[in-house]
Specification:
The chain has one helix and no strands. It is mostly helical. The protein has one domain. The chain is rod-shaped and about 45 Å long. GO terms for molecular function: gluconokinase activity. It is an enzyme of class 2 (transferase). Its EC number is 2.7.1.12.
Length: about 35
């Protein structure tokens, strides 16, 4: 909701960056084959 603080968004985005990086790495491995 709009009442949620920006800090909560940061807490979600930081781990999400790691997940995205792992996903991209996995996709690159599969595509490399």
């Amino acid at each position: 909701g709009e009442q949620e603080p920006d800090v909560q968004a940061i807490d979600i985005n930081q781990p999400l960056d790691g997940v995205v990086a792992d996903t991209l790495a996995h996709i690159r491995r599969v595509t490399a084959r």
